[in-house]
Amino acid sequence: MSQNQDYVRTDLKGFLSVGSIASVWTIETGGQIAAGESHDFPELVYVRRGPYSVKIDGEPLVLRPGQLMIYAPNSYHQGHLPCDATLCIVGFEAQLPLTAPIYNTPIMLSEKQRDAMEEIISLGSGLFRPAPLGLGLRGMIPCEGVADYGFQQLKNRLELFLIDIYSSLSQSSKPSLGANRENFRNEQLSRVQDYMLENISRELSLSLIASECSMSVPQLKLLFRETCGCGPIAWFIDQKLAAAKAMIRETSLSFTQISERLGFGSVHYFSRQFKAKTGMTPSEYARKVGK
Predict the structure, then answer these.
(1) Which of 23, 108, 140, 191 has its CA 20 to 30 A from that of 209?
(2) What is the C-alpha to C-alpha distance for residues 254 and 256, in angstroms, rounded to an integer?
(3) Res. 130 pLDDT band, cuts 50 70 90
(4) What are the φ and ψ backbone dihedral angles of 43, each rounded to 5 degrees?
(5) Which residues, other chains included, contact 51 with Cβ-Cβ below 8 Å and sequence gap of 6+?
(6) What is the pLDDT of residue 181?
(7) How confident is the model at residue 176 (pLDDT cuts 50, 70, 90)?
(8) Are 55 and 78 in contact (CB under 8 A)?
(9) pTM
(10) CA 166/CA 101 separation, integer angstroms
(11) CB atoms within 10 A of CB 26
(12) What is the rounded distance in angstroms from the CA atom of residue 55 to the CA atom of residue 61?
């Protein structure tokens, strides 16, 4: 074999490249409705705890725990209903392929993808801090003393995550049996949660919820335990309390009126549930928010 033969070299074409980061943070909505905004870069929102009700270009939808949404550049997004959710947000600059429905579409992440999302948030939160107030800046700036390889790690992990999302969306349109089951479970959860949110002013029992949603009580309890980590009534009360916080902040209703509008039965029961959830009474919360 000749010693001067050249090696074959294959040029590696870039499929997707993240050019810059605008934000990496975690937000607790605490029953508030997020203000609307739009920007010229994509932004992904992962619902760690939810659900989260949002409007995108005027169209409302609900994101469930474990779901991801990538807002398209220049799409106007805002909170829709009061929700008590934990959101992980990453704003970034990249040209994403458009051959798969990757923008403005709820994407249920696999366990592996959720772990990758948590790693990105954990890494990014140590690399950036909010831009200083009073300078006319938004988003985040690099922390001082961060090594360059830290930003390379974040760039590579985010790119691999996005490629994995794109790959999973681009696979065969014929879902597997496991995917069918997952889709059916998500549809069940969406139907039940929508029913409860539509009836947030009522007192609902497990048997009534199950009957109205064509399920048995054991099925209903298992569904919420596996998807939300709590019982259906506990989830329902959380939504009532998130709405109560918004009413305290934004209206002049009395605590009795709020408890009646949210179907708590009595103001005393409302106060007990409020303190158990928030660690403070409704009066203490009102003073905290300046009401």
Answers:
(1) 108
(2) 5
(3) confident
(4) -140, 130
(5) 62, 63, 64, 65, 83, 85, 193
(6) 65
(7) low
(8) yes
(9) 0.62
(10) 9
(11) 14
(12) 6
